[in-house]
Design goal:
The protein is of the alpha/beta class. The chain is 38% helix and 22% strand. It contains eight helices and eleven strands. It has an eight-stranded mixed sheet, sandwiched between helices. A three-stranded antiparallel sheet has the order 8-7-9, covered by helices on one side.
Length: 294
């Protein structure tokens, strides 16, 4: 084992946020009981047109002793494919753990060495970092396996058999062997549902999900994609891709439930229309149809 932590960041018109994240990584590397922190390598995949800005950010990290590779020039290949590009380089560098981080996350507590604690669960494991939200605990997401509605699991932890609880994709730890066995993220998903998909596939392969409580990550959410709970403010990009990926998810894993999930999406489109967002309602319908045809 090399003891190398590989960090994957997919940038989409968010170079300023990526810079803030890297500053928090450099600071977090020096935190904790080991003053020098773990060995870290960062891969930044530019899904937009900010290679010049990202090169400046990379230079800052390099001067702090953290090797960085900026991967650019491929266009917007989506979140799943972008992280797969990053992981390919990181694994070639010898990373023992891949840590997927959104640009709008920040290291909020603990040292980066704690990220390697996911290996305590075995060489095939997925890890959730700690949430800084009220109540704390591991940073988890949840999806309803009949409707596709996403949210956070209840504080009691009793989600029920019709719910899938998974490690949040904005801060996801995956051991080297688990990533290789899973083949990384499924590129059937352009945006959203990647972490739910990888959680299901991991469970079927007997790959456990564990918590890494000594490492906390703060997540602003929706900065690049316009993903927010506010239906009036949510972007049409989010409405479209969340609906498309929802259908792809059910077609892959629960084909017999596709009619229920599609009906739920149509209900969601009606809700958007009632919120005086005809553009959002159209995006939901277009995304649903696109997912059914994918």
């Amino acid at each position: 084992m090399s003891g190398l932590l590989g960090i994957s960041i997919v940038n989409y018109r968010s170079a300023g946020d990526t810079a803030g994240l890297i500053r928090s990584i450099v600071t977090g590397r020096a935190a904790g009981p080991q003053a020098t922190g773990p060995r870290v390598a960062i891969a930044i995949v530019d899904n937009s047109d900010q290679a010049a800005e990202l090169s400046e950010i990379a230079g800052y990290a390099e001067r702090a002793g953290v090797p960085v590779r900026v991967i650019a020039g491929h266009g917007n290949v989506g979140y799943a494919a972008g992280n797969n590009l990053a992981a390919t380089w990181l694994l070639a560098e010898g990373a023992d753990v891949i840590w997927v981080l959104n640009p709008d996350t920040r290291i909020a507590g603990g040292g980066l060495a704690s990220a390697l604690d996911v290996l305590h669960a075995g060489d095939r494991a997925i890890g959730a970092t700690a949430s800084v939200a009220p109540g704390g605990g591991p940073d988890l997401g949840m999806v309803d396996l009949w409707t596709g509605q996403s949210g956070r699991p209840p504080a009691s932890g009793a989600a029920g058999p019709s719910k899938l609880v998974y490690a949040a994709g904005h801060s996801l730890l995956v051991t080297r062997r688990a990533w290789q066995d899973l083949g990384g993220f499924s590129e059937d998903f352009f945006l959203f549902y990647e972490e739910a998909d990888i959680a299901l596939r991991a469970a079927r392969l007997g790959i456990p999900t564990t918590a890494v409580p000594d490492l906390a990550v703060e997540h602003t959410g929706g900065v690049a994609t316009g993903a927010t709970a506010d239906m009036a403010a949510k972007s049409t990009t989010t409405y479209f891709h969340a609906s498309r990926s929802c259908m792809v998810f059910f077609r892959k894993h629960y084909r017999h439930r596709v009619p229920f999930a599609a009906a739920a999406r149509l209900g969601y489109a009606a809700k958007a229309l009632l919120a005086r967002r005809p553009d959002a309602a159209t995006a939901v319908i277009r995304g649903t149809v696109a997912g059914l045809r994918a």
